[in-house]
Each structure stands twice: as structure tokens, then as C-alpha cells.
Amino acid sequence: MAKIVTFISGKGGSGKSTVLVGIANELALSGKRILIADTDTGLNCMDVISGVGEGAVFNWGDIFNGSCEVADAIYPSLNIENLFILPAPKEYNKDFCPTILKDLLRLISDNFDFILIDAPAGLGQNLTLALEPADEAVLVVNDDVFSLKAGKKAADIAESMEKSTTLIINAFRAFAVKNGLLPSVDEAMDITEIGLLGIVPFEANLNFNASQGLPYLRDTRATNAFLRIAKRLQGEKIDLPEQWR
Ligand SMILES: Nc1ncnc2c1ncn2[C@@H]1O[C@H](COP(=O)(O)OP(=O)(O)O)[C@@H](O)[C@H]1O
Ligand SMILES: [Mg+2]
Predict the structure, then answer these.
(1) How far apart are CA 71 and CA 192, in angstroms?
(2) Of 86, 245, 81, whose CA–CA distance to 174 is shortest?
(3) Per-residue pLDDT at 87
(4) CA of 123 to the centre of ligand 2 (A)
(5) Cys-Cys with 62: which of 28, 30, 67, 170 at CB 3.0–4.6 Å?
(6) Minimal CA–CA distance to 165: which of 16, 3, 1, 7?
(7) Residue 147 in contact with ligand 1 by CB distance below 6 A
(8) Left (φ > 0), alpha (ψ -120 to 50) or beta: where does 10 sit?
């Protein structure tokens, strides 16, 4: 049975989708079978980032409507083996019940090692739908007070649903923290009141949008952070690099 992890953020633009795809890529490259389930209907770029792009005809809303079979809406990534995408509907149907995704993922969970769900930004009922199937949640924030406070609200919703939640600080700029311009890692944990899963450094040109023909480059500072987080999600104990401790 797959471990299901929902990535939440509270506010858009924290890099949630980028971080999710990076971690999914590292898990898949290590030989695990990975499904990304997109729930971000308005900004459902997951199929594009992962390279499925225009080839994605069906989504999980179509499965619900009976317009296609489950297997029709699951697309293999074009450039990474073992990675599959279940795209989001273009808009939410008011008839979707909160457990629609949970019920669907339960049916296919045995085919994967991990299912990573990209939650929508915001705090509404679509966030609840994305959290419902999760064994655990991961909050992705930028290291600024606004992102941390919005993230805390999303984490509170996850907690109210009894989903244990850990924190990824993304686009981390150590020099700005050192100069007192941004919260320290400790302060970020204090504001969100959750424990740290990982830190992803700011990396200019961190763009591996496969549909633009951009490859996923391993062994950069950011992608090494994705690899460390992928290992931690599998229960390995991997220390933070010294400069962030
Ligand atoms: N660690 C990072 N360093 C630099 N830029 C990043 C980083 N993570 C994400 N970005 C950039 O931030 C923007 C928003 O990322 P995205 O993943 O779409 O955010 P979200 O899904 O939270 O809305 C994108 O242009 C992405 O390339
Ligand atoms: Mg996104």
C-alpha cells in the first residue's frame, strides 16, 4: 500500500508544486513507483511540469463522472521512469464529496510506493478534499513571515483532521537569515509550530518543466535537498547540512 503525503502551503507561490515534483523525481529515480495526484484545479500545471502536458485528456473528475476508466486518467511521466500523474479537473464540481479522492486512491494505492498530492493554495473545502486521503501532510513555505503565517493556518486544518504535519522551508536564503532580514529556521518552526522535514535553498533557474524540454538536473544544491527529503520520507535519518544547523 502506498504512503500518501499531501503537500499544503496556505498561500500560492511558495514553490509547493516545484518541491513536490522534485521529491517525486528523486523517489522515482531511486526505483520507487510514484503517483502525483493533482488537486490544484485553477493552476493545474502538475501535468505540464512533469512533462505529460497536452497529452493529458482525462483527470480524476472524469473518473468520478464515469467518462473514463481509472487507468485512462493516469499518465506516465515522459522523462522519468516509475513516475505517474493523475491530473486535476479543470474546475470543481459541486457534487464532489469530500472523500472522492480518498475513495479513488484507496482503489489504486497498491500499485504505488508513494502517492504525493498537490493541494490547492487557500484554506477552503478543496484543501480538505486533498488532505482527506493523506497518511501525513507536508507544509511548504517560503522563509518569510507572511508565508509562514498563512502556512500555519493550513497546518492547523491538517491538524484538525489528525494529519501529522512536517515543514519544508523552500527557497531558503541563508545570507538573508544571517543578516536578520528573514526568520531563522528556529523562528520558522516557532511560527508554524511544526517540526522540520527539510530546507530547500533558493536556486536561480530552478526550472525543470519537462514540457518545455527542460531536464531534471540531479546533484544541484536544490535537487540534493529533494534527495535528502525523499530519503527522510522513507524513514532514513539524514542530517541537515552543517550550514543550516
Ligand atoms: N527553491 C527555489 N528556488 C528558486 N525558485 C524557486 C524555488 N522553488 C520554486 N521556485 C520558483 O517559484 C515559482 C513558484 O513555484 P510553484 O512551484 O509554482 O509554487 P506553488 O505551487 O506554491 O504556487 C516558480 O517560478 C518556481 O520555479
Ligand atoms: Mg502549484
Answers:
(1) 38
(2) 245
(3) 92
(4) 14
(5) 67
(6) 7
(7) no
(8) left
Q: What is the pLDDT of residue 45?
A: 64
pLDDT value for 43: 60
Task: Determine the distance separating the centroid of ligand 2 and the alpha carbon of 121, expressed in angstroms.
Answer: 7
Ligand 1 site, residue 130, Cβ cutoff 6 A: no
Q: Residue 173: its pLDDT value, please?
A: 95
pLDDT digits (tens, 9 = 90+) for 159-173: 999 999 999 999 999
- Kindly write down the DSSP assignment for every residue of 38-84, as one continuous string: E--STT--HHHHTT-GGG----HHHHHHTSS-GGGG-EE-SSSTTEE
Secondary structure class of 144 (helix, strand, coil): coil
Write down all domains in the chain, each with its CATH number in brackets.
3-138+209-244 (3.40.50.300)
The residue whose CA is least distant from atom 9 of ligand 1 is 15
Average pLDDT taken over every residue of the chain: 91
Phi-psi region of 51 (alpha: psi -120 to 50; beta: other; left: phi over 0): left
CA of 43 from ligand 2 middle (Å) equals: 6
Please report where in the chains the cell 533558493 appears, as a residue: 202
